[in-house]
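Aim 2, interim progress. The first record below pairs a target sequence with its C-alpha cells.
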Amino acid sequence: ICYDLTDPSASVYTCDQGIDANSAVFANDASLAPRVYCSVPSFTTTNLSVKYQYSKGLTLRAAVQNLFGVEPPVDLGTYGGTGANASSAGTGVPYNPSLHQAGAIGRFVSVGLDYKF
C-alpha cells in the first residue's frame, strides 16, 4: 500500500506538479527528482516490551521501539510541519514526522527496574 504526491482536489495531477507543490527540495526542477519519490510506500515498525516481576516489590522491565531498525520512506509532500516543504522553506527533513518518526529515530532500547517499598 502506498500513496502518491498527486492531489486532483488541488489541481495537482502529475508527479512533477506534486513535487513542485509540496517540496522545496527540487524547487528549481522537479524533473530531477527520482521517480521513486512520486509515491510513498507503507511504513511499519515493530515494538517489543517485556516485564518480569522478580519479587513482590522488584520488577524488571525492558522495551525496544522499532525493533528491526526500519528507515522511513522519503515523503516529499510531507505536511508534518518540519518536512522539506513550503511550511519550513525547504529546510526540514524529507520524511513525514507525523507518520514516520519511529523510523527517523531508529531503534530505541530502554531498560529499568521498579522497586516498591
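The second target in this work package is listed in the same format:
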Amino acid sequence: MTKVILILLAGLLFEAVGVVYLSAGMKELSSEIGQARPITAAKLWRFMRSGFTNQKILLGVFYE
C-alpha cells in the first residue's frame, strides 16, 4: 500500500510541475501576441513554431 501511495504522490508532483511549466510557457507566448490584429498564415506558422520550440512548454508536456 505504501508503494501505491508513493507512486501516486510522485505522479501528482510531476503533474503539478508540468502545469506550472505549461502555464509559464503559454504566458510567454501570449505576451508575444499583443493586441488582436489580422493574422496571416506566416504569423500563425511563426506563432506555432515558437510554441513547439518553447522550452517551458516542452518541459511542461514532458512532465505531464
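The helical segments are 2-33, 41-53, 55-63. This observation will shape the mutagenesis plan for the next reporting period.
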